[in-house]
Write a structure and sequence with these properties.
The protein is of the alpha+beta class and 259 residues long. It has one domain: Alpha-D-Glucose-1,6-Bisphosphate, Chain A, domain 4 (2-Layer Sandwich). Helices cover 37% and strands 25% of the residues. The chain has seven helices and seven strands. The chain has a seven-stranded antiparallel β-sheet with strand order 1-2-3-7-6-5-4, sandwiched between helices. Helix 4 packs antiparallel against helix 5. The protein is elongated, with a radius of gyration of 21 Å.
Length: 259
């Protein structure tokens, strides 16, 4: 999505991801840098950058939708995970251990418990991933926060984990969705027309000119696709990390708990 300030006098840069006004651009001082990301995300992004072959693989994978590990991605911007794990312990034991794990894992304000009872823990959480933003032909990284819902249900000797509602945290000036970055070429053009064309009631004439110029729009759409694709592996990795972190905690030796 794009800023909706109708009074702007500046043009648009050909970017992937949230757009940047032309007057803000500087090749010497990019708006985002890898150093601004947390250490763990820096390592993740560098790994993504080094394995260039993964980009080719992504093009194929996103055409058909895939499941990496237990994480499902449908190729349209929707991610989810659902898995049942068997663990030695009573239902109350499993609930206790999962509650302990959540308290240790989500030690910040982004963790909000919705339900915590004998049968279920339902929470909201978030993590940050790097996204590749293209500005005037050069690539930079932008950290994007991803929100999700974690639902853990308990029975004797097993629990079920579901991670759903995976979505970009909304920014007031560009309320974009993950799904926007996986629309088809004409679907995305019509999406922009609805939001910024004459029918929107808040037309940005500079955007209208861009949308209707095939050459400029092709460049924009290519960068938009690149932006969305760059988040697929990081999001998948983070979701699977949550799954494996909880499983490891549930299976560790809890015998010292009974002191």
């Amino acid at each position: 999505m794009f800023p909706t300030d109708k009074s702007t006098k500046y043009g648009w840069a050909m970017v992937g991801g949230p757009p940047v006004f032309i007057n803000q651009l500087s090749t010497d001082n990019p708006p985002y840098s890898l150093d601004e990301l947390p250490c763990g995300e820096q390592e993740l992004f560098l790994t993504l950058g080094k394995i260039q072959i993964m980009r080719t693989l992504l093009v194929f994978l996103m055409c058909c939708g895939v499941a990496w590990g237990q994480v499902e991605f449908d190729g349209k911007g929707n991610f989810s995970l659902s898995q049942v794990h068997e663990v030695n312990g009573s239902r109350s034991d499993l609930q206790k251990w999962a509650t302990e794990w959540a308290a240790k894992t989500y030690n910040n304000s982004n963790y909000v418990t919705r339900i915590n009872d004998d049968d279920q823990i339902l929470t909201k959480g978030s993590f940050e991933v790097p996204a590749i933003q293209t500005i005037n032909g050069k690539e930079f990284t932008q950290g994007r926060r991803i929100n999700y819902t974690l639902n853990v249900q308990f029975k004797e000797g097993r629990y079920k984990i579901d991670i759903t509602d995976v979505a970009l945290e909304q920014h007031p000036s560009y309320p974009d969705r993950l799904q926007d970055y996986f629309l088809g070429k004409e679907e995305y053009r019509n999406h922009l027309r609805r939001h910024y064309g004459p029918e929107s009631g808040a037309e940005l004439k500079s955007m209208t000119r861009l949308i209707e110029n095939d050459r400029k729009y092709d460049e924009l759409y290519t960068n938009i696709q690149k932006y969305g694709r760059s988040m697929v592996i990081p999001i998948t990795v983070q979701i699977e990390k949550i799954n494996q972190s909880l499983l490891a905690y549930m299976k560790q030796d809890h015998s010292d708990d009974d002191w």
